[in-house]
Design goal:
With about 270 residues, this protein is of the alpha/beta class. It contains 5 helices and 14 strands. Helix content is about 15%, strand content about 35%. Strands 4-3-9-1-2-6-5 form a 7-stranded antiparallel beta sheet. About 40% of the residues are buried.
């Protein structure tokens, strides 16, 4: 188990990889496993270690990405001609196996009313074939639990599930806390390795007309007061992140003991 680190790369490194395999992890999550000789040296931090993912767009015949350099990466990325510029999205390391140099990435699968795939990343993940090339830029962690935290509360929709799973797997064994995790369907629930003192409450949306995060916010508003020496982490749809932070503060957590991030916007 990796030690917790709050280090964020000041000169993020670009890693090139290729698809080894892809499959449906649950009805709403697609897992892509990546490999590459350079990945054996990936400085995995555990927890919610995330990265910028670059992948081929549906209309592009091949993946093309010049070498990006550190803090200037975005300017260099925008300088790539639009016709060949790859799609860029933020994702979490779902798992990492240094002995084989393999990284797992979990994608939330969005579909329209007619059942067609929506979103560049979901389309890419569902069509990924072994040997397909892509790249990612290391970005470090968001999770920032104080060392003296008495308890933790993790709150997320399905886009934050890979981060929650990674955090639970990396926490010290004596951690006390709770998770409120929303998923689209009951079949998206799964066993998440975690400390014995951390409980999980699954919020099943089970309704395509309900926006992600709405039911979780309702559940959070019924939550009992929190120890001000605890720590809160809320991620997912933009409103869930911002309103969730406000509610955690109302429940007793100081603002500097709450981490929140909007992973997407409805």
């Amino acid at each position: 188990m990796p030690k917790k680190s709050r280090i964020v790369p000041t000169d993020p490194q670009l890693y090139r990889a290729e698809v080894i395999r892809s499959y449906d992890l649950t009805p709403s999550l697609r897992r892509v496993t990546a490999g590459g000789e350079g990945l054996k040296d990936f400085p995995w931090m555990g927890y919610d270690h995330w990265f910028r993912l670059f992948m081929r767009r549906p209309h592009q015949e091949q993946f093309a990405l010049p070498q990006l350099s550190g803090a200037k990466w975005y300017k260099e990325y925008l300088a790539i001609p639009e016709a060949v510029r790859p799609h860029c999205a933020n994702y979490t390391v779902a798992d990492y196996r240094p002995e084989t140099g393999e990284i797992d990435i979990d994608f939330v699968i969005h579909r329209g009313r007619d059942g067609s795939l929506e979103g560049g990343a979901a389309i890419w993940a569902c069509n990924a074939q072994p040997g397909d090339e892509f790249a990612f830029l290391d970005q470090g962690m968001i999770f920032d639990r104080p060392d003296d935290a008495s308890e933790i509360l993790l709150v997320a929709d399905e886009s934050g599930l890979p981060a929650v799973a990674g955090i639970l797997r990396s926490l010290p064994h004596d951690t006390i806390g709770r998770v409120i995790q929303e998923v689209p369907t009951a079949m998206d629930r799964r066993d998440l390795p975690r400390p014995a003192g951390v409980d999980i409450s699954w919020v099943v949306r089970d309704d395509t007309t309900v926006v992600a995060g709405v039911k979780t916010l309702a559940a959070l508003k019924q939550y009992p007061p929190l120890d001000p020496n605890g720590y809160g982490f809320v991620v997912g749809e933009s409103k869930l992140a911002t309103e969730g932070r406000r509610q955690l503060h109302r429940l007793g957590l100081p603002k500097d003991r709450i981490t929140f991030s909007g992973f997407w916007k409805h």
